From TrEMBL:
Keywords: Cytoplasm, GTP-binding, Nucleotide-binding, Protein biosynthesis. NCBIfam families: prfC, PRK00741.1, small_GTP. This is Peptide chain release factor 3. Increases the formation of ribosomal termination complexes and stimulates activities of RF-1 and RF-2. It binds guanine nucleotides and has strong preference for UGA stop codons. It may interact directly with the ribosome. The stimulation of RF-1 and RF-2 is significantly reduced by GTP and GDP, but not by GMP. Pfam families: EF-G_D2, GTP_EFTU, RF3_C.
Length: 525
């Protein structure tokens, strides 16, 4: 490993921002990109706000809805680090891709709306991060508006998410009376809406504001000081080790819209954010980004129809080790086939550019004509290996699907097979009748499926929603009898022929478990 390459790799910080829709993820992302000089104006991150689209770039469905179907990647430099932010789409665009994106990052930033606290989608995404044991940093946003009490927010964080929290700073007032933040970590007070030269106020060795200042006589200041005393005495101890293991989340307060607290957050975050981490292979070898001399990476996402005219797809590769250079030879471990990579893209906020060189920690896009599958490993050296499988996620929404035209059954099955392999949707079938049931974690996956079946396979499909279900796999399949299947606990097979129960609701599942104590059920993530 040349020391230059090592230096480049160690400068990488790759993370995702997780949040519930409307908490302020886009706003924060924009501010981060502005600091990094990657964009000039706010409002360029998502087409949603500005209607700006490179028309050739996005699927029809994206244009219609004004959203981006799958996550994108943004890169910028800040104070010696090269930062890759992987977007995790929310709301209806929430899908398995959102979860899988979290497999490709080394840490996560969780944005919470101070008025709303922990919301459903944040919780789901948080669980995936927790399972991976990656560091999670929390930004509590919208302090310029009245929200919940800060202590209440910290308590909620700990209770709902089951993680310890350490406030790195603390708000002084809130909403109309938001005066600033008391920065416990950097030992200073940062003032809200003030002249640049007054932005930071010093604190003395007792932790009090060190100078005479009108803020000092306000009730907000004394309240903040009382809270901080409480945190110092009864709060969690600060531990970098625990932060690194994802057991303690450092919490920052701020207001992304007014660009307050974001830069402090970024600078502090960069001191802790992990460099590219090793990944494990199926035979339990660690592939270290720096130690492993050759290029390797895995595909965590395949995005279709970036350019409808060419029907192309882009496979997103997280580089695990070494260096990618355009024109290099790569081997796809699953098939053992080698090929020369001449077309590759990197992803930026407002444009895609061709990438010539990228290193461990970066994400590159490879043009795909149907070669790749989700979870595939690509290697640069002679010796191939396979990275650990990406987890499958328990879907929550299901539809029964048929071809409108029965004559098209062959294309129908071919299309489904390919889209399932690509990880766009999950496949199930009923036991004898072999009706096709599709599962997804987000509604949009169905819409994309329908659209792609029509456009890529020329098959119109009929989709009959069967609602949300709780899917549970079975440890002891041999004890399952078909008579256990009912409308409330439907027995189906997944694409690997494993038996799965689709329960109508929690109640149906508990009822089943009571009646059939010997059957051991489990869910995927
Ligand atoms: P996303 O859905 O998480 O990406 O959220 P956005 O960044 O699009 O923000 C949702 C809404 O909240 C927008 O109207 C923003 O202008 C607003 N918003 C974001 N940050 C703040 C903030 O710090 N204060 C206030 N008052 N509004 C904010």
């Amino acid at each position: 490993m040349t020391s230059n390459l090592e230096k480049d790799i160690l400068a990488r910080r790759t993370f995702a921002i997780i949040s519930h829709p409307d908490a302020g993820k886009t706003t924060i992302t924009e501010k981060l990109l502005l600091f990094g000089g990657a964009i000039r104006d706010a409002g360029t991150v998502k087409g949603k706000k500005t209607g700006k689209f490179a028309t050739s770039d996005w699927m029809e469905i994206e244009k219609q809805r004004g959203i981006s179907v799958t996550s994108s990647v943004m890169q910028f430099d800040y104070s010696g680090s090269r930062i890759n932010i992987l977007d995790t789409p929310g709301h209806q665009d929430f899908s398995e891709d959102t979860y899988r994106t979290l497999m490709a990052v080394d840490s996560a930033v969780m944005v919470v709306d101070a008025a709303k606290g922990i919301e459903a989608q944040t919780l789901k995404l948080f669980k995936v991060c927790k399972m991976r044991g990656i560091p999670i940093f929390t930004f509590i946003n919208k302090l310029d508006r009245q929200g919940k009490e800060p202590l209440e927010l910290i308590e909620e964080l700990e209770e709902v998410l089951g993680i310890h929290a350490y406030p790195m700073n603390w708000p002084i007032g809130m909403g109309k009376e938001f005066l600033g933040i008391y920065d416990r970590y950097n030992k200073r007070i940062e003032q809200f809406r003030t002249e640049e030269e007054e932005r930071f106020l010093p604190i003395d060795e007792n932790g009090e504001l060190a100078i005479d200042h009108p803020m000092k006589v306000t009730s907000y200041y004394s309240q903040a000081m009382d809270d901080i005393m409480l945190l110092n005495e009864a709060g969690n101890a600060y531990s970098e080790e625990k932060i690194r293991r994802g057991e303690l989340t450092p919490v920052f307060f701020g207001s992304a819209l007014t660009n307050f607290g974001v830069q402090t957050f970024l600078e502090t975050y960069l001191q802790f954010a992990p460099t590219p981490q090793p990944r494990i292979t199926e035979d339990e070898q660690y592939i270290d980004p720096v130690e492993h001399p050759e290029f390797s990476g895995f595909i965590f996402k395949i995005q279709a129809n970036m350019n409808p005219a060419h029907r192309d797809r882009i496979a997103f590769v997280r580089i695990v080790s070494g260096k990618f250079e355009r024109g290099m030879n790569m081997t796809l471990s699953r098939t053992g086939k080698s090929f020369k990579v001449t077309q590759s893209t990197q992803f930026l906020a407002d444009d895609r550019e061709t990438v010539d060189v990228a290193v461990a920690g970066d994400i590159i896009g490879l043009y795909d004509t149907g070669t790749y599958q989700i979870g595939d490993t690509v290697v640069g050296g002679k010796k191939t290996f396979q990275f650990e499988k990406l987890p499958q996620f328990t879907p929550e929404l299901f539809v029964r699907v048929t071809a409108k035209n029965v004559m098209k059954s062959k294309q129908f099955h071919k299309g489904i097979l390919q889209l399932v392999q690509e990880g766009a949707i999950q496949y199930y079938k009923t036991l004898h009748t072999e009706e096709v049931i599709l599962g997804a974690v987000g509604q949009l996956q169905f819409e994309v499926f329908e659209h792609r079946m029509k456009n890529e396979y020329n098959v119109e499909v009929r989709m009959e929603p069967i609602g949300s279900k709780m899917a549970r796999w079975i440890e002891n399949e041999e004890d399952v009898k078909e008579s256990m299947s009912s409308s409330r606990s439907m027995l189906v097979k997944d694409r690997f022929d494993n038996l799965v129960f689709l329960f109508e609701n929690e109640f149906a599942m508990r009822w089943f478990a009571d009646k059939n104590e010997n059957i051991k059920l489990y869910s995927l993530l």
